[in-house]
Amino acid sequence: MTTEQTHWKTWATFFLKRSTRALPALEQDRDYSELPESLARSLAIFQLGESGGGTIIKQALHNRLPGTNEYYAAAMALFVEEEHRHANILAMCVRLLGGTLIRSNWTAKLFVFARRLIGLRLKVVVLLAAEVVGLCYYHLLAVHLPSSRLRDQLLEIVEDERSHLYFHCDFLRSQTPSRWRKRVFVLTWRVVMFSAAIVVAVDHRRAIRDLNIGIRPVLARWKSYSDLAELLVVRDNAEQRPWKREFSNRPSLS
Ligand SMILES: [Fe+2]
Ligand SMILES: [Fe+2]
Q1: How far is the CA of 87 from the centre of ligand 2 (A)?
Q2: For residue 238, is it within any domain?
Q3: Where does the pLDDT of residue 117 fall: very low under 50, low under 70, confident under 90, or very high at 90 and above?
Q4: Does residue 56 fall inside a structural domain?
Q5: Considering the domain boundaries, does residue 199 fall inside one?
Q6: How far is the CA of 111 from the centre of ligand 1 (A)?
Q7: What is the distance in A from the centroid of ligand 1 to the CA of 54?
Q8: Which of 25, 153, 178, 227 is deepest in the core (most CB within 10 A)?
Q9: Which pLDDT does position 2 carry in this prediction?
Q10: How many whole angstroms from 158 Cα to the centroid of ligand 1?
């Protein structure tokens, strides 16, 4: 087995181990009425975004890109399953907050549109932007909520999203071996990430305001994770650098 095959097998095993987690029991009798309505709406939008992903499994299975194999496809299927688990948890949170689930939203449509336009590599760039946006936003929401299981669940989702970030960065790194490919990635990544940040900031502005999060901390966190993702893809030996502490939530890859 080549190093690459071992690599994707390790990721598939990593996701497989987590796939047995049961859905959490949230505090059904807890009163969340002091929390703003905009929080439920915001989580409902993310719930919709976490629900898709069928086509990327097929694409990961049938693609002929160098550096991928059946284990990458298996890891991708388990990753999508984990996102669906997030969708189920967020659906519980939305109901607990007295909100309603939605079937359509303009930012979710934009992300789906961008993912459908293009091949696997660009799809993963869009997915990576969604991971950065989601993990930073869930974290900021959680730290502005009172202590509760709902808050704990959001923080658990943040940890999952961190490993998704590493998973997609590993794939993109395998697809950008040359200097010009790295340059194309950086350009594409910055445009996609900037666009994602703007549309999400606009769509979630009420929750950001109502929870007193402030737009600056949101943008600053997106920027730092966006930079981290970029470095993980393009820099040699990124894991040995000062941001090494960010690597706690990934499998140890041989
Ligand atoms: Fe997720
Ligand atoms: Fe994710």
Answers
A1: 10
A2: yes
A3: low
A4: yes
A5: yes
A6: 14
A7: 14
A8: 153
A9: 63
A10: 8
Helix pair 106-116, 54-62: axis angle to 10 deg:
10
**178 Cα: distance to centroid of ligand 1 (angstroms):** 31
Under a CB-based contact definition with an 8 Å cutoff, are residues 68 and 60 in contact? yes
CA dist., res. 232 & res. 199, Å (int): 24
**3 state SS of 204:** coil
- For residue 77, how far is its CA from the centre of ligand 1 (angstroms)? 13
Name the DSSP class of 205: H
Q: How far is CA 84 from the centre of its chain?
A: 12
What CATH number is attached to the domain comprising 85? 1.20.1260.10
Distance 51 CA to ligand 2 centre (A): 11
**What is the average pLDDT across 113-128?**
82
DSSP string, 54-97: HHHHHHHHH---TT--HHHHHHHHHHHHHHHHHHHHHHHHHHHT
Residue 247 is given by DSSP the state G
Kindly report the average pLDDT of the chain as a whole number: 87
129 with 191: CB under 8 angstroms? no
C-alpha to C-alpha distance for 191 and 187, rounded to whole angstroms = 6
Whole domain around residue 218: which residue ranges? 3-19+35-249
Position of tokens 């959001």? 154
